[in-house]
Structure formats: structure tokens, C-alpha cells
């Protein structure tokens, strides 16, 4: 016979954390397919006797486990365990286990390898499972064995969902054993209690058919606190594909209620009907949903892009993000003798100096305030003439404006001092603006005017954030066509064809086949994308950013491109570290960044 310990690797310096008990509510290991029918599932029903107290890696005095499948007993594991500590008298009275019985028994570290091998590829079942599983996980952590994280079914929780108070007064094991007339009665000994729990489990499974619970995954979720709406609408998740794509919850009138994306549509949609889904708005959405539509995609990038486009097109009421891309705004330099900054919804083909897009007017105003702090751009909204003058405002008296309204500065000088720094900062190098704002922060901090320094710091962050984002977008959207490939999880390549920052085509080449024919087919059927004006001429900024994130992953390979993909060597991207500090509020460090 092989040594079980040899097949169970130890881990170094493992630690048990009490929070691990909450893991019963999270996704478990992948050893058992949740779609497996209950009659075909292998269960290991376990019960422990302990010295009492909290799980600390010891305290186990007896383990009893019974392996069953389809109502047939497949194996039994039972052993006393020497806890290495005295047995409290009340435990001896309760269980009949004495100190003399435990002295020759093996310690838990010798029992664990056999037990872990016994539960391999099985669903772990226990009555009040958090207690038993907590002791087992703590013992594994203490003695260096990785916990296999099996799926766990709690018969006590299942009984609370299946049986009413009219049928049983409580959900104690003894009460349930009497109700189901189990062949073995619980005696506070591990093997007897485990055998009684087996019969209780079979009795509860017999009641699940009336609740349309047929698989082990459904049984585990049914035992948790799902709402009646989730239980009633669970059928909406049936028949969906296990592929990447987009799912759409639709109302009775076919109106989209919610749009989401996943690498596995079927698994993701099923999660909406589990205890893990606790969002109030999603519960409201499920009550109104009548069907779920699946849109299969080649890979995750296509799914993300399709989700964004569907949300933008339909504005589903239960989606919060990406609903109104048309609400983006721009900060542009007006075309006047003495230009000023203006916040606009759209860019005209003649606009040549601009920054954005911003997700809100407030973000654009914050960046505009940063430029006003750094360069002498006028802030009034009058249209100034080269010939006639107007009275100056208070900003001119305070030295915050060169007073072009009174012609104290020529249009040429104003352009060099105020307009050129804006154009340079947005297109290429924001060094002049950054230096001016850092100098102002240093002066304010030196005068202990920290709140004002924090305001300027926020404006600096807004300017850099927008400049970095726009230059990053423009670098990709200026390319007429780019093809890229990324290794697929199951072999082959995920392929994307990008035109002017818009996903024009996507596909997957099968394993062992050269991807060139697939790329040619994608190109032949790809969307035609015409060039346009601005850094996002053909798609939303969010779509282009999703594509950028996919392209910038280390495993992604550029196949071919119609032009060079590059950013300005002295562009805003070189201030990323400064932007991070500004966003994190490290104003006391910013004065050292001047160069």
C-alpha cells in the first residue's frame, strides 16, 4: 500500500485564520462539477468529536467519515485522535471518550493524510458544517497541509430550507434522525453520528425534487439564504452557453434591464441566483426579468466591448456604469484673438487645442482651474476685440490676468505666455504647467497654507490625469489598423483587429493551426472604420481604454500595424509617478519633484 502522506504535499508556515469559516459561502474548489446530478455525486459525510473550544489546530478527539454515492456506501474512515491535551470531564460524560482511550491513538498530523486522501473528488457533508470544517482547516494549517477546499453541504442548513416547524421542532441531528427514522441513532460518537447524518442527507435529498433542485451545485446554493425571487427565477439560468460573451436580462416587453459580461456566461448568470448575490437593485431587477439572452463572443475583449456598446445603446436601468458616453465633455482653447478655455460637448473639425474627454463637467472645471493657476489665461467669457477695449475685472487687479481686455498685452505675447503652454501640455510636454503648479504648492506649503496647497494638488492631478489619458488614447487611435494576438487559455490564439481605436473584428485561431488564415478572415469581414477628429474619433474613450489594457498585457503580441504605435518621448506619461503621489495626497513630497 502507498503512504497517503506522500500524496498530500505540505506547505510551509501555514496559518489558520478564523475568517476562513466564511469560506463556506464562497466558491469552492473545482474537484466536483456543480452541474453533477445528486444521484451521481460522491459525498463524504464527516463528524468530529472534540475537546470543545475554538478551532486552533488541535482539540480533535475522533473522526468518523462515510463515503457514499447514489445511496451506496463506498467506504468508511474512523479513528480516535490523541489531542495531546487532557479531556475535560464533561466531554467524557457526553461522548464516553476517556483519556485512557486516547493515549494510544495517533495524533491529528498522522491522521490528516489519510483523511485528505479519503475526501478527494468528493463533496464534504456535515451537520453544522462550519464547526467541523473549521477544526479540519485549522488542523491542516497548523500542521502544514493545504486545505483542498472541497464543496461543502451543510445538512443543518439544508434542513432549515426543506423542513417546516410543523414537521420538526428544531434541526438538531437527533431530531432529524428520529424524523427520518435513520438506521443508526446519533450517540455523540463520530462514526455513529456520521452514519446518522448519511441517512438524514438521503432524506433531505428526497425532498429537494419538489424544489427543482437536481444538482449538487443547486443543493449547496439552496441550503443558503437565497430569496424567494431568486429561487423562483432560477430557471432563467438554464440552457446558457459556457463561453465568453454578454448576457442581457430582459423584461416581459423585451426591454433590456441589465447587461453584463463574463468569460463563462452560464456560470456567471447562475451566480445571480445564489446567496452570494445581495445587491438590492439586482434583486429588484430579477423580480422584473423574464428571460436572459446570451451573446457569444470570441474572447473576453470582444465581450467587454459588446457590453459597453449595448449599455450605451440601451441605457439599461439597472446598470450604473458606462450608460451615457455622450455626456463626456472637452476642455478646448477658443479660436479668438485672446483665446480662453471653454467646456464643450463635442469637438469641431477646426478645434486644434483641447484636452479630454472628461467624464463630467466638474472634472473639466478642475483641470481648467489648474491651467488658470499655472498660466495667465483669461477667465472671463467676453469675446474680446483687437480694436476696442473693455474694463478690466478684479483678476487683473490681483495680478491673476494680463488684462487683454484693456490691451495691456498684445495677441502675440498673450499667445506665447498663455495659449502655447496649454497646447504644448496637451499635445506633448506639460513640464511648464507642472513646474508652475509645483512651485505654487511649495509656496503655499511653506506658508503653512496646507488646505490651499491641497486644492492646487488636486488641480495638478486633474491636469496630469487628463493629459496622460488623452495622449495614451491618441497614440492608438491614430493607427488605421492594428492586429494583435494573445494566447488562449485552451490553446490557440485570441485575435483582435483594431481600427482607429475601435474593435473592428475578433476571433480565435484553433490550437495547432497557424493564425494567419484566421487573421485574414477577420480582416475580410471586419467593420469599416473611417478616421475622424480628436483622440477618440471612432469609439468611446472607455472602449479604446479596454482595448489598450488588452494590448498592453505582457502576453499580447502585435502581429502587424499600419503605422508606428508610440507616445511623445517627453509626453505626459513621464509624470505618472507624480500623478500617483498627487492622487494619494502626498503634497509634502510634491515640492521635491520639480526639475
Automatic annotation (TrEMBL):
Among the record's GO biological process terms, what is one?
Answer: DNA replication
One MF annotation (Gene Ontology) recorded for this entry: exonuclease activity
Alphabetized Gene3D superfamilies for the sequence: GIY-YIG endonuclease (3.40.1440.10), Ribonuclease H-like superfamily/Ribonuclease H (3.30.420.10)
- Please provide one cellular component term from the Gene Ontology annotations of this protein: excinuclease repair complex
Recorded hits in InterPro entries, A to Z, give: DnaQ (IPR006054), GIY-YIG_endonuc (IPR000305), GIY-YIG_endonuc_sf (IPR035901), GIY-YIG_UvrC_Cho (IPR047296), Ribonucl_H (IPR013520), RNaseH-like_sf (IPR012337), RNaseH_sf (IPR036397), UvrABC_protein_C (IPR050066)
Where does the chain cross the membrane? none
Q: Kindly give the SMART domains that the UniProt entry links to this protein.
A: EXOIII, GIYc
Q: Which residues form a coiled coil?
A: none
Q: Tell me where in this chain the GIY-YIG domain is found.
A: 242-320
What Pfam families does the record point to? Answer: GIY-YIG, RNase_T
Highest taxon in the source lineage: Bacteria
Q: Hydrolase among the record's keywords?
A: yes
Q: Does the keyword Metal-binding apply?
A: no
UniProt keyword list: Exonuclease, Hydrolase, Nuclease
Q: Name the chain's protein.
A: DNA polymerase-3 subunit epsilon
State the species of origin.
Micromonospora chersina
Amino acid at each position: 500500500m502507498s503512504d497517503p502522506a506522500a500524496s498530500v504535499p505540505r506547505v510551509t508556515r501555514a496559518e489558520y485564520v478564523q475568517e476562513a469559516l466564511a469560506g463556506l459561502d464562497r466558491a469552492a474548489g473545482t474537484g466536483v462539477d456543480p452541474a453533477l446530478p445528486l444521484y451521481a455525486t460522491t459525498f463524504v459525510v464527516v463528524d468530529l468529536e472534540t475537546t470543545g473550544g475554538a478551532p486552533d489546530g488541535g482539540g480533535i478527539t475522533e473522526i468518523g467519515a462515510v463515503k457514499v454515492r447514489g445511496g451506496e456506501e463506498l467506504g468508511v474512515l474512523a479513528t480516535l485522535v490523541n489531542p495531546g491535551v487532557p479531556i475535560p470531564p464533561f466531554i467524557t460524560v457526553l461522548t464516553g471518550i476517556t483519556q485512557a482511550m486516547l493515549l494510544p491513538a495517533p495524533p491529528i498530523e498522522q491522521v490528516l493524510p489519510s483523511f485528505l486522501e479519503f475526501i478527494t473528488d468528493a463533496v464534504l457533508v456535515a451537520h453544522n458544517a462550519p464547526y467541523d470544517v473549521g477544526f479540519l482547516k485549522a488542523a491542516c494549517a497548523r500542521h502544514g497541509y493545504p486545505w483542498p477546499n472541497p464543496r461543502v453541504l451543510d445538512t443543518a442548513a439544508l434542513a432549515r430550507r426543506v423542513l417546516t416547524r410543523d414537521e420538526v421542532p428544531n434541526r438538531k441531528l437527533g431530531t432529524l434522525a428520529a424524523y427520518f427514522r435513520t438506521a443508526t441513532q446519533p450517540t455523540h460518537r463520530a462514526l455513529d453520528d456520521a452514519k446518522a447524518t448519511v441517512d438524514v442527507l438521503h432524506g433531505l435529498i428526497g425532498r429537494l425534487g419538489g424544489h427543482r433542485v437536481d444538482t449538487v451545485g443547486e443543493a449547496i446554493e439552496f441550503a443558503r439564504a437565497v430569496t424567494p425571487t431568486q429561487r423562483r427565477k432560477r430557471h432563467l439560468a438554464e440552457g446558457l452557453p459556457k463561453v465568453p460573451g454578454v448576457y442581457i436580462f430582459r423584461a416581459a416587453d423585451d426591454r433590456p434591464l441589465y447587461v453584463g459580461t463574463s468569460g463563462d456566461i452560464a456560470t456567471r448568470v447562475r451566480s445571480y441566483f445564489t446567496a452570494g448575490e445581495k445587491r438590492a437593485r439586482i434583486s429588484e431587477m430579477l423580480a422584473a426579468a423574464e428571460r436572459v439572452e446570451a451573446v457569444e463572443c470570441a474572447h473576453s475583449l470582444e465581450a467587454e466591448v459588446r457590453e459597453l456598446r449595448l449599455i450605451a445603446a440601451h441605457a439599461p436601468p439597472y446598470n450604473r456604469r458606462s450608460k451615457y458616453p455622450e455626456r463626456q465633455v472637452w476642455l478646448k482653447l477658443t479660436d479668438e484673438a485672446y483665446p480662453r478655455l471653454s467646456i464643450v460637448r463635442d469637438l469641431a473639425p477646426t478645434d486644434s487645442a483641447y484636452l479630454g474627454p472628461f467624464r463630467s463637467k466638474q472634472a473639466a472645471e478642475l483641470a481648467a482651474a489648474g491651467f488658470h493657476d499655472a498660466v495667465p489665461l483669461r477667465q472671463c467669457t467676453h469675446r474680446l476685440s483687437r480694436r476696442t477695449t473693455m474694463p478690466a475685472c478684479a483678476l487683473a487687479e490681483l495680478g491673476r490676468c494680463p488684462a487683454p481686455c484693456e490691451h495691456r498685452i498684445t495677441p502675440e505675447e498673450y499667445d506665447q505666455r498663455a495659449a502655447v503652454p496649454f497646447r504644448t501640455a496637451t499635445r506633448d510636454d506639460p513640464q511648464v504647467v507642472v513646474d508652475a503648479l509645483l512651485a505654487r504648492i511649495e509656496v503655499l506649503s511653506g506658508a503653512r497654507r496646507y488646505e490651499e496647497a491641497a486644492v492646487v494638488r488636486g488641480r495638478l492631478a486633474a491636469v496630469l490625469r487628463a493629459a496622460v489619458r488623452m495622449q495614451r488614447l491618441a497614440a492608438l487611435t491614430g493607427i488605421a489598423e492594428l492586429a494583435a494576438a494573445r494566447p488562449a487559455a485552451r490553446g490557440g490564439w485570441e485575435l483582435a483587429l483594431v481600427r482607429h481605436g475601435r474593435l473592428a473584428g475578433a476571433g480565435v485561431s484553433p490550437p495547432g493551426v497557424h493564425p494567419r488564415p484566421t487573421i485574414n478572415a477577420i480582416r475580410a469581414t471586419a467593420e469599416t472604420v473611417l478616421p475622424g477628429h480628436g483622440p477618440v474619433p471612432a469609439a468611446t474613450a472607455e472602449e479604446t481604454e479596454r482595448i489598450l489594457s488588452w494590448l498592453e498585457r505582457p502576453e499580447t503580441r502585435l502581429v502587424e500595424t499600419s503605422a508606428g504605435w508610440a507616445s511623445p518621448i517627453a509626453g505626459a506619461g513621464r509624470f505618472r509617478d507624480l500623478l500617483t503621489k498627487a492622487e494619494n495626497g502626498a503634497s509634502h513630497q510634491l515640492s521635491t519633484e520639480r526639475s
